[in-house]
Design brief:
By secondary structure, the chain is α+β, with helices and mostly antiparallel strands. The protein folds into two domains: about 80 residues, no CATH class; about 70 residues, no CATH class. The strands form three sheets. The protein has a three-stranded antiparallel beta sheet, with no helix packed on it. The protein has a three-stranded antiparallel beta sheet with strand order 4-5-6, with no helix packed on it. A hairpin with a 2-residue loop joins strand 4 and strand 5. The mean pLDDT is about 85.
Length: about 160
């Protein structure tokens, strides 16, 4: 009961704040328009038309880019991953971050105790992932080959 009252109060506060902010923005917008209108009146109509056309083209381009990004995100969400060596692998055996699922592209090899250890770093979430499993550390090419063999064994 007390929780519902608290939620109602929070909702009311949010509505009041939203209304106040919207009102302030409307007041600010009217002042800006009153300042800008005289300046716009002095600009030739063909220049204003060109600016409008440019703005429209930019917005259409941004819309298509947003559509492209949303398709990429949907494809990434639909991708089936295999788990191995601390990372996610797509069907093309490309490594992806286990946290954000972005493609891992920053690879480096480190020598530790006379063994080469491959590490991938996610440029999105800045997580560094060593390529390892219960058998030890792997270089990227070796991990891909081992993954290929494991997938082949499980599909037989």
């Amino acid at each position: 009961m007390l929780k519902k009252v608290k939620e109602k109060i929070e909702e009311s506060i949010f509505q009041i704040l939203f209304g106040a902010i919207a009102g302030l923005l409307a007041i600010i917008a009217t002042h800006i328009v009153s300042l800008v209108l005289p300046v716009l009146a002095s600009i030739p109509n063909n220049v204003l038309l060109a600016l409008l056309a440019l703005s429209l083209l930019i917005n259409i381009g941004l819309w298509f880019y947003t559509l492209h990004l949303s398709k990429q995100l949907k494809n990434l969400q639909d991708t089936k991953f295999n788990i191995g060596f601390g990372v996610l692998w797509d069907k093309d055996r490309e490594p992806h971050c286990p946290v954000c699922k972005n493609l891992l592209s920053a690879y480096e090899e480190k020598r530790i105790k006379n063994k080469i250890r491959g590490e991938l770093t996610c440029i999105n979430c800045n997580k560094t992932i060593p390529l390892s499993d219960q058998d030890g550390f792997y270089r990227l090419d070796d991990a891909k080959e081992e993954l290929k063999q494991r997938i082949t064994k499980t599909s037989e």
